[in-house]
Amino acid sequence: FEPILTPAIQYTLDQSPGRITQQTSDMARSLISLIGFRDQYTSSHSARVANYVRAIATQLGLSDEETETAVFAASVHDIGKIGVPDHILLKPGKLSEEEFAWIQKYPEWGWMSLRHLDGFQQAALLVLHQHERVDGSGYPNKLTGEEIPLGSRMITVADSFDALTTDRPYRRALSHAEALGELIRCSGSQFDPEVVNAFRVSLERQTAGNELS
Question: Is 155 left (phi over 0), alpha (psi -120 to 50) or beta?
Answer without folding.
Answer: alpha
